[in-house]
Design goal:
Elements (H helix, E strand, L loop, with lengths): L2 H11 L2 E2 L4 E15 L5 E7 L3 E4 L5 E5 L5 E6 L9 E2 L2 H4 L2 H9 L1
Antiparallel strand pairs: 1-7, 2-3, 2-4, 2-5, 2-6
Length: 105
């Protein structure tokens, strides 16, 4: 698949959050979103063609493909796009989006 693809897959698998909702519609293929549960455990969500997922701002998550290594997804936005992933760490734990998300648990 090439080094650019491999780098993208590794980037998506790093645990991170966004300051905006992440809304994805799966156009083709299959993959997994892993999200952190209330006890900080991983919860795996399998997605396939036709699925829609909305991850709230501030939730730690990561993404990977299945063994076919193919997915085509569309990202949707409510407002201006905020693409920046914030990788998990002490400084991100104090991010306002993270604090708001945790206060809802």
């Amino acid at each position: 698949m090439g080094p650019v693809y491999e780098d993208k897959v590794k980037m998506f698998f790093n645990e991170h959050l966004h300051e905006d909702e992440e809304i994805r519609y799966i156009l083709d293929g299959e993959g997994f979103f892993d999200v952190r549960g209330i006890e900080d455990e991983w919860v795996r969500i399998r997605l396939e063609k036709g699925d829609l997922i909305v991850l709230p701002a501030g939730i730690y998550h990561r993404f990977t493909t299945d063994n076919k290594n193919y997915i085509k997804a569309m990202r949707l936005f409510k407002d201006e796009p905020k693409w920046t992933p914030l990788n998990r760490g002490p400084e991100v734990d104090s991010n306002p989006s993270r604090k708001e998300y945790v206060s809802r648990e």
